[in-house]
Amino acid sequence: MKKITSLLTVSLLFLTACGTEQAMSIEDQAAKYGMTVERYREEKAAAARMNMSWEEHVKMIQDDSGMNHDMH
Ligand SMILES: [Cu+2]
């Protein structure tokens, strides 16, 4: 029973985190990744073009500092 309760707590925390993320404005999101809003929009589009999730794409950008971006 205790296990179920902590599992519920974790899921709730997770949901709360997701809700917060979605409530962030595009300006906030861009700032979070150190990008301008314009750049953020471009990267979002690039991620979609590459069929990558946003998280994967951000990781990729940060890993190779945006070099050879369209090569992978
Ligand atoms: Cu990518």
Description:
The protein has helices spanning about 1-25, 25-30, 35-50, 55-65. It has a domain at about 25-65. The N and C termini lie far apart (about 45 Å). Helices cover about 75% and strands about 0% of the residues. It has about 70 residues and is mainly alpha-helical. The model has no long low-confidence stretch (mean pLDDT about 80). It contains four helices and no strands. The site of copper (II) ion has 6 residues, from helix 3 and helix 4. Copper (II) ion binds near residues 52 and 57.
Poorly predicted ranges (pLDDT <50, ≥5 residues)? none
How many β-strands, per DSSP? Answer: 0
* Helix count, DSSP H or I runs of 4 or more residues: 4
Order of helices and strands: HHHH
**Bound small-molecule species:** copper (II) ion
Query: How far do the termini sit from each other?
Result: 47 Å
Average pLDDT, all residues: 80
Structural class: mainly alpha
Beta-strand percent range: under 5%
Radius of gyration: 16 Å
Form type: elongated
Major sheet: none
Q: Helicity, in percent?
A: over 70%
Question: What's the topology here?
Answer:
Blueprint: H1 2-23, H2 26-32, H3 37-49, H4 54-64
Helix pairs in contact: 3-4
The structure holds copper (II) ion.
What keywords describe this structure?
elongated; 4 helices; mainly alpha; binds copper (II) ion; 72 residues
Task: Give me a quick take on this structure.
The protein has 72 residues and is an all-alpha fold. 74% of the residues lie in helices and 0% in strands.
